[in-house]
Amino acid sequence: MRSYQPDLTPPWKRSAPVPEVPAEADLVVEEVSTGFCGAVIRCEKTAQGPTVTLEDRFGKHRVFPMEPRGFLLEGRVVTLVRPSAAAPVRPARTASGSVAVPGARARVARAGRIYVEGRHDAELVERVWGDDLRIEGVVVEYLEGIDDLPAIVREFSPGPDARLGVLVDHLVPGSKESRIADQVTDGNVLVVGHPYIDVWEAVKPSSVGITAWPVVPRGQDWKTGVCRALGWPENTGAAWQHILSKVHSYRDLEPALLGSVEHLIDFVTAPPE
């Protein structure tokens, strides 16, 4: 029979118990050893134990182990724990940051559309704005490039009740893309874009776990060059799925893409004048 062993530690040296707090999304805490303060983005289960990702007010992400007494909440030491899976809290906002509408049904598709250049663009827009687009009844389609954009616009036959929005990669002054976009002059069509060579670059490097997107020399396939520079297998499809898996909300995207997509949604859903 095991004998009772009393705790002989003096009371003033014993650690007082601290409350356990579920690491719910948007909870703002401070990590005790580094002083890093931010909102909870996500919790993950790793081989080394559970971790929590925080985002500070500048958009910087840091990952910390969820150790006992590891965080300050409103100045008090707490232990963060993973939220209960048995009773999930309905998110107050969608991945795009819009107010969530519980139980909302998808609207019948509008005549208007949003066109994007490729499948990766479409998948990224769906991941962040999918809930909003379904409520608004906006369908996103991809074109596999915009070389024939003027003809595509004519075939669509845009009008006040069927507006067309187009998202273009690398839409900067003097680029081939900008010259093509300038050929579209219909008032019921809005062509906007972002400055990145490919939509991969619109994902914040910190979200992917890299310091910056590599500079790929001219003449190389950009996506393959990125994989080589980062030491990833030269499988661009697998690389994209890895990148996409790191996008959880608008916080993981660069502002230049956010503004363009929001502008397109507003344009397509605006009532006819």
Structure write-up:
The protein is of the alpha/beta class and 273 residues long. The protein is 26% helix and 21% strand. The protein is built from seven helices and eleven strands. The chain has a seven-stranded mixed beta sheet, with no helix packed on it. Strands 9-8-10-11 form a four-stranded parallel beta sheet, with helices on one face. Strand 10, helix 3 (176-181) and strand 11 (189-193) form a beta-alpha-beta unit. The longest helix has 18 residues, at 119-136. The chain is globular, with a radius of gyration of 24 Å. The mean pLDDT is 85.
SS-derived structural category: alpha/beta
What is the helix fraction of residues, given as a range? 25-40%
Span between termini: 86 Å
Rg to the nearest angstrom? 24 Å
What kind of sheet is the major sheet?
A: 7 strands, mixed
**Order of helix and strand elements from N to C terminus:** EEEEEEEEHEHEHEHHHH
β-strand percent reads 15-25%
Unreliable runs, pLDDT <50, ≥5 residues? none
Quickly count the helices. Answer: 7
Short description:
The chain is of the alpha/beta class. The protein contains 7 helices and 11 strands.
